[in-house]
């Protein structure tokens, strides 16, 4: 499967209609519309540099909730709709999906938009978030998009996701089977405060707590999806979660092409340069109305970035010469081009003709020949070449 492929024709049609559907579902009086770009900018500040100011109930404020629904919700839907079709997520009739820190049902909505093959399957979604207004908005928007009488049954629960399982009447293992898919999207970094300022040992303990929490909802054959913003500390956190999953006997489905030591563990390569596992892709197929709002708020988005991990049941092992491309292309000496890639041998530099490298976007799995007698002088990575 190709990671981050452009939106399909149907998915793009639905995504292009999302901004208008949001405005229809949550009407914004004209007198407040001019303030929307400023509200988006303020919410962005509270989610980044102003994290300490926002408080737990910040989305209970109507201007901030409106900004979230009109800006952050569609951008998060877009990222997930680029990611989800490239993951091996298989669900059967009456399977349960648990979404921790679900926000306005973002993961559920994205699955409905980009996985039309699942729409007719009876599924149960168990969505937990600490914000009542956000959950209410999510239910209202999903009903506007998908209708109220479909086969998906959605249960929303207001509460703290940590330890919530033991208190929820909606998750009684004597009555309900464990989840086949457990997701945590853009939530673990918030759950543990400012991940970017966490010490290494604190980050490791929180990764262990996170995996225990995710597994408490899951069956032995469950799949997991963890996605976070694509900045360095989140990438390191994802790497630590990966290690805990492996220790617990789970298997890594994506993006890793191997189950050996993480190429990015500790965040530095052989030359000491800071690197982290993340993926970036162009946003040319995002809704035009969303691009317009982003520009007005001062946050034009030509590219989207994220770090993620998909884990699940054991699957066939990939050859040791399979690598996952993780960078943009860049020129090399002798009229060649390269992209950095992840492999069981550590970081490798995939090198070749410009046309071949440019046609191999970030996220692609490639079978290569790794030349351990040659290294990249800049990164210390082994050189890899395309298999002919």
Description:
With 388 residues, the protein is an alpha/beta fold. It has 2 domains: 9-231 and 278-312, Rossmann fold (3-Layer(aba) Sandwich); 322-386, OB fold (Dihydrolipoamide Acetyltransferase, E2P), CATH 2.40.50. Helix content is 33%, strand content 24%. The strands form 2 sheets. Strands 1, 2, 3, 4, 5, 6, 7 and 8 form an 8-stranded mixed sheet that branches. A 5-stranded mixed beta barrel has the order 9-11-12-14-13. A hairpin with a 3-residue loop joins strand 10 (330-332) and strand 11 (336-343). The longest helix has 22 residues, at 62-83.
Brief overview:
With 388 residues, the chain is of the alpha/beta class. It has helices at residues 9-16, 18-25, 30-33, 36-47, 62-83, 106-114, 132-146, 188-191, 200-216, 232-247, 288-296, 354-358, and strands at 96-100, 123-129, 152-158, 179-185, 218-229, 251-254, 279-282, 303-312, 322-325, 330-332, 336-343, 346-352, 365-375, 382-386.
SSE layout:
Elements: H1 9-16, H2 18-25, H3 30-33, H4 36-47, H5 62-83, E1 96-100, H6 106-114, E2 123-129, H7 132-146, E3 152-158, E4 179-185, H8 188-191, H9 200-216, E5 218-229, H10 232-247, E6 251-254, E7 279-282, H11 288-296, E8 303-312, E9 322-325, E10 330-332, E11 336-343, E12 346-352, H12 354-358, E13 365-375, E14 382-386
Parallel strand pairs: 1-2, 1-4, 2-3, 4-5, 12-14
Antiparallel strand pairs: 5-8, 6-8, 7-8, 9-11, 9-13, 10-11, 11-12, 13-14
Helix pairs in contact: 4-5, 5-6, 6-7, 9-10
